[in-house]
Specification:
By secondary structure, the chain is an alpha/beta fold. The chain is built from 7 helices and 10 strands.
Length: 219
């Protein structure tokens, strides 16, 4: 199967077995080090949406707001007042967009299942947020490249996703047990991605990644 012979992030062909459990196999790319689930184990869109509907993420839930603030707080310190952004993969309750609007930022929402506004992906932004999104992407290389293309020079891409440490920890990791989680990034994977796109990268804590699109060279 092509999905087992090529990496969905970098299209590399150096693929090896990484781990397995009673439900799925997990492979790893030898180039970018992404760990991923082969397409044979992916849910269809209806099943994915049913899983997402089980999540209770409410805009005014204090615990959920604290969770999202792990990305929002370091991001907003890097943004100019009134910056315009995209909440990509906002879900049915776009809490992060609401929080950023409270801080004075303009935010557009997009979600392929819940807010499928194609116009949102035809604009440029000062920042883009993707909280607990990239682990769900069936085609992460294509989707991340598209988001990167929507950023203004000097703009920020803020990612929130749990990071792979090693195979032993992975085998016990609760994060891989969600059937909608099909891509697992490590810090090394994000550094690889940053080198490929000429980005500055900062990894904050256990699960926040900030990538900055370079400014054009001075004349």
């Amino acid at each position: 199967m092509s999905g087992e012979t090529h990496c969905p992030l970098c299209a590399g062909g150096e693929i090896s077995w990484y781990s397995s459990d009673r439900r799925r196999r997990y492979l790893q790319c030898g180039d970018c080090e992404l760990v991923f689930v082969p397409p044979a184990y992916h849910l269809d869109r209806a099943a994915e949406k049913a899983e997402y509907a089980l999540h209770e993420n409410h805009i005014h839930d204090p615990g959920y707001r604290r969770f999202l603030s792990r990305l929002m707080e370091p991001l907003v310190t890097r943004l100019a007042a009134g910056a315009r952004g995209l909440d990509f993969g906002c879900g049915p309750g776009p809490a992060l967009a609401h929080m950023l609007r409270e801080e004075g930022f303009e935010v557009v929402c997009y979600d392929s299942l819940f807010v499928p506004d194609a116009a949102a992906l035809a604009q440029c932004y000062d920042f883009i947020c993707a909280t607990e999104v990239v682990e769900h992407l069936h085609h992460p290389g294509r989707e991340l490249e598209r988001l990167w293309s929507l950023l203004q020079p000097g703009g920020w891409l803020g990612i929130m996703t749990k990071l792979v440490r090693d195979a032993e920890a992975f085998s016990r990791w609760h994060y891989k047990n969600d059937p909608t989680h099909v891509c697992f990034f490590s810090a090394r994977t994000w550094h690889w991605w940053a080198r490929r796109y000429g980005a500055a990268v900062e990894i904050i804590g256990a699960d926040v990644i900030l990538l900055r699109r370079p400014l054009p060279p001075s004349p």
